[in-house]
């Protein structure tokens, strides 16, 4: 089952600072609830895990994420990832595209488009909107964390 998620948000920091944050896996993972970076495979590929609760099922996905495109001039990123859950009830594949540009009111405007494909028993949670609800909560926490960490860095 494929789920498409598209979000936009503004951060009151310059584009280059936001770019540096959003292309650094160690900084990104610090803002993803339940996520942990295990290690680098190479300079664009990383192994990690993320735990989440989908309806009545709590699961831990272990997998790999890769920066397929990193265009610092256009501030454009394409990432792909895939993982399997530790209980054998499903797998996930993800493609995420992000674009940054100066915001009209100053700071940075971030646009993110993500397609998530779930297989196995976990795919059934997409039909009732559970995955969309979880994605909205996780994305809200992520954007709040990014803004807070960037603001703290600017004040240092």
Structure, described:
The termini are far apart. The chain has a 7-stranded antiparallel β-sheet. It has one domain: Alpha-D-Glucose-1,6-Bisphosphate, Chain A, domain 4, CATH 3.30.530. With 156 residues, it is an alpha+beta fold. It has helices at residues 15-22, 25-29, 130-155; strands at 2-11, 35-40, 45-54, 57-71, 76-85, 90-102, 108-120.
Name its key features.
3 helices, Alpha-D-Glucose-1,6-Bisphosphate, Chain A, domain 4, seven-stranded antiparallel beta sheet, 156 residues
Helical content (DSSP H or I, runs of 4+):
25-40%
Overall, the morphology is globular
Q: What is the CATH level 1 assignment?
A: Alpha Beta
Q: Which stretches of 5+ consecutive residues score pLDDT under 50?
A: none
Structural class estimated from helices and strands: alpha+beta
Strand content: over 45%
CATH superfamily: START domain
Number of strands: 7
What topology, given as strand order, has the largest sheet? 1-7-6-5-4-3-2
Number of helices: 3
Please compute the radius of gyration using only Cα atoms: 16 Å
Q: Mean pLDDT, nearest integer?
A: 85
Query: What name does the CATH topology carry?
Result: Alpha-D-Glucose-1,6-Bisphosphate, Chain A, domain 4
| CATH architecture term | 2-Layer Sandwich
Largest sheet: 7 strands, antiparallel
The termini sit apart by 44 Å
* Structural domain tally: 1
Q: What is the ordering of alpha helices and beta strands? A: EHHEEEEEEH
Helix-strand layout with pairing:
Layout: E1 2-11, H1 15-22, H2 25-29, E2 35-40, E3 45-54, E4 57-71, E5 76-85, E6 90-102, E7 108-120, H3 130-155
Antiparallel strand pairs: 1-7, 2-3, 3-4, 4-5, 5-6, 6-7
